[in-house]
């Protein structure tokens, strides 16, 4: 598959342009994540959006080639990489139910004996990373190699400054990891795990990169090179988990408004999947109070409204 | 639209027959709801499944014409009937996020000041019924008229014995209603509301009835007689709420396994929607620990696996 | 025992006068309870304080003879009246641990299957009243008779306006009662129970009345007429429950500052016990955010500081 | 003050002997703490009890000179040592309310933004140790010096095996510390803090040692050498916190049964204070489900019943 990164004739390009136009008239709303300086410095008015079709065609509007911090969007890829290796045994260590709580809460974790609700809250992503680490010895490296391959962008890399900053402000995640370790649900040493986890969150990617890298979810498990990463059933399952758990404590609202499997990150990126058709990535750093990009959700909402491409 | 209730040539009939065959080889598992005698008396080995196509064709296997207690499946219809009248104002009184808690829990309700998480937990359904009651003066009557019209079955009715039994064992729902009233989120007198609520839950319906009555969700808001109940967008929204919140504390698992918008009831019924294609209803009274029909979920899981008709 | 209601030579009178003097220089702080109009109308600057010695001598300062709404202070007496009849069986239906939650919370009640944490949160007091009602047929009447006898004040009575107002705003307590009924922990019909409960809360009493009525707790279980209400051990136990649970979610702070068994009410009254020595009642309607009288706690704090009469 | 460690004529000796006799007829009940091997190895039938009078006279029964792991009993001394230095500022960092939750729960900590409920749950003790560490540079060393001085036993020491074992099984405490650090409520590096914390918990002490070391709480703040550690008011305050929070989630029951300020540890020790009169320490490793020594609570219950020395 050849990845074509500029396609003036892209099917949805006129729609993307219309959305970008509408968004540009909306004053920047939401606030960038401020728990680490590297994210807080983002301009909340930034906006980019890309669509990747099944054949690897990718196109976009606005700052669709501008790298940003992928953050929790990477949780989808780590989940896929571990599920591909481990299969259903993973689900004995992490659930797949919406949490009904903020993404870094410890409450439910305590009631449920150290088994996180789903792989997309921080606790669950720590478990997935821990398991991938056990299987590969370098979870973050696996992720990076996968993203480079799928996006066709060998320059993709960790952002060391962001990773260092996450580590410096990582007390909550350290608490989550130690807490799960107290229930025997973490295999690796906590500092090793946190290093892997923070590095993978720090990957700098563009909308184009992430739209392409998500393609296997629209292609029912098939990677960019035509090889199979996941079974058809597993790809469907990840989409289901994204729809019910992908946008923190706003999954119901996202399903209601957008109606697509999606995963957001506090860097302001959101990926979304139209199964069998295409993948999208939108980026704008201004977040709502639940940690999702305000303009990003609005743009995806417009996309499914204008195209009728919701799964419902 | 003519409702054809026997269609040997139904598209999915061979698949339904295969599923029924498989299910028949599985020993009855799960236990009927036992909080009221009328439900506890059900035979857990009962099984029926029906498909209604967009044009009103309906067909099924097993006990697909046997009436059973619709229970929480009716919450979908009450939601639609209220949303059709009230529009988005409803969402100021009930959320649309998965709850992450059992369906009759009070915990989240307290933290969120009497606003239930979604319309499908009991607290949320009480709010919806309360609002429909305010607008119509007879919420249960509205529901019954709607079910009769959509199913083409004028014999559909409340089960007075079940309603009386629910009332006698209704202390938890009474607590929920009074609790929300203490936050000003209930308009009607609590005993009036509970009477309406328990009667609507008691409706006795068959798989054929419920598959037909759900048709508007597959037809993007259009009723059986061709009139519009909901806007296209509202129909999509209800499907989204069903997918994220329709099966109690197992919505994530249901999305993962079945991959369709669905709503279950403790009578053992489950409806599911394939948008733009058909609706299904399956019934088997044996419940799992989260209140969903064991054989019902298994049958829907097989259906989407065999047909590839998941939304993902 | 002769009750002497004016004793210029009361042992602690100079100390009470000093406290009243100090309090008078403090601007009224806190706010009267505002959930019912009858309480909201109180003047937050009102202040009265009385001491009753073991022999029934009673004296006070400020508005120590002015009736106010006893509210939750009555929970001590209902507890004693039921414990005297029922003995330890009561503790199978209500715990005796501090709740760590506001006094009308449902959260803990759900985790602990309808068994309230202690007899002084609303849920627990409802259980105690329910059990006393079962044993006497008129729990509120029993309470009234007891208060009249111990205070030597036959004019003590329910305040019908307050009781009616409580009933009209009683949705939260109705929710608590129905909720516990759903666990089988309430015997009487909920409306009957609520009527008994709200009437008993409404009793209008003065500092003098309540200081005298509490005397049995300082006399190790002996009533004003010399008869025994409780065993020595039971009297000690009630004092212990008062110390650990008597001031809502501020029991630790009250123990820390005052160091005496005490019980507060949202009418602004607080009783306190110096075992083997005397009982106190202070009243001032301005409440802190946890529902305790601001000036009342301050006055008791001063009392134990000046006299050294803390139990610690 | 001369510490007399053998006093056949001790006031309460006959009572202790009677209690020991009664306990010896009770089959060992409860189970030793099993989260670390060093504690799990204890014989649950071990029993010792000591009384220290105000003048330093100490006597006991059973294995009253046998060292055991002091564990959480040390929290009282660390609290006193920090309060003596810091005063009321401490209470901005830790509360003094009963928690209503198990001693190592994270739930309340999250709702209350990293401020532990009281100094005797693990989270609160970590805060106290952290603050003492900041003030002294060696919190555990301060504690050890204090215990040696008050008990007159220069051989008192940390148990390195226990400390190492705690560290190896310390994931939950690590989680608590990191979690509070995420709210800015921990000053020192978490590994440094945990080392201090686990060492102080590991101190091996006998009933005689702990009864003597607690003496300042019965002497209203005066140490064994006659110098003042705490103001009279502070000593009273610590007693109050012990009564309301000293026995984990069973403080209400302990107050109800024993009626004295007390503090338990999972090593099976419990200290108790009769203000102005004496201090006690009882030890027996069999714990109830809430972490308190079964025989220890029973022995103290008997003591106050036989002597009438409850504070109530």
TrEMBL record, chains A, B, C, D:
Gene3D superfamilies: DD-peptidase/beta-lactamase superfamily
One function term, GO molecular function aspect: glutaminase activity
Catalytic activity: L-glutamine + H2O = L-glutamate + NH4(+)
Superkingdom, natural source: Bacteria
Assigned keywords, A-Z: Acetylation, Hydrolase
Recorded family membership: Belongs to the glutaminase family.
UniProt-recorded name of the protein: Glutaminase
Gene source species: Streptomyces andamanensis
Top-level taxonomy: Bacteria, Bacillati, Actinomycetota, Actinomycetes, Kitasatosporales
GN (gene name): glsA
């Amino acid at each position: 598959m050849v990845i074509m990164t500029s396609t003036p004739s892209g099917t949805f390009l006129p729609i993307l342009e219309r959305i970008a136009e509408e968004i540009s008239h909306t004053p920047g709303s939401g606030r960038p994540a401020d728990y680490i300086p590297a994210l807080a410095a983002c301009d909340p008015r930034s906006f980019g959006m890309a669509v990747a079709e099944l054949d690897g065609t990718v196109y976009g509007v606005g700052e669709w080639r501008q790298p940003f911090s992928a953050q929790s969007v990477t949780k989808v890829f780590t989940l896929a990489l571990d599920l591909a290796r481990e299969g259903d045994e993973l689900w004995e260590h992490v659930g797949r139910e919406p949490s009904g709580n903020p993404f870094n809460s410890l409450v439910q974790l305590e009631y449920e004996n150290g088994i996180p609700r789903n792989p997309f809250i921080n606790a669950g992503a720590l478990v997935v990373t821990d398991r991938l680490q056990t299987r590969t010895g370098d979870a973050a490296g696996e992720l990076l190699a996968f993203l480079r391959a799928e996006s066709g962008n060998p320059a993709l890399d960790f952002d060391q400054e962001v990773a260092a900053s996450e580590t410096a402000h990582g007390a909550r995640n350290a608490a989550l990891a130690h807490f799960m370790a107290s229930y025997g649900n973490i295999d690796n040493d906590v500092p090793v795990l946190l290093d892997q986890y923070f590095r993978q969150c720090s990957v700098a990617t563009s909308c184009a990169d992430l739209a392409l890298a998500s393609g296997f979810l629209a292609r029912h498990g098939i990677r960019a090179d035509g090889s199979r990463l996941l079974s058809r059933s597993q790809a469907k399952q990840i989409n289901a988990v994204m729809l019910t758990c992908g946008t923190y404590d706003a999954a119901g609202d996202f399903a209601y408004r957008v109606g697509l499997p999606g995963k957001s990150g506090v860097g302001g990126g959101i990926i979304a999947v139209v199964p069998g058709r295409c993948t999208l990535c939108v980026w704008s750093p201004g977040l709502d109070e639940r940690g999702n990009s305000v303009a990003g959700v609005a743009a995806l909402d417009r996309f499914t409204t204008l195209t009728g491409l919701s799964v419902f």
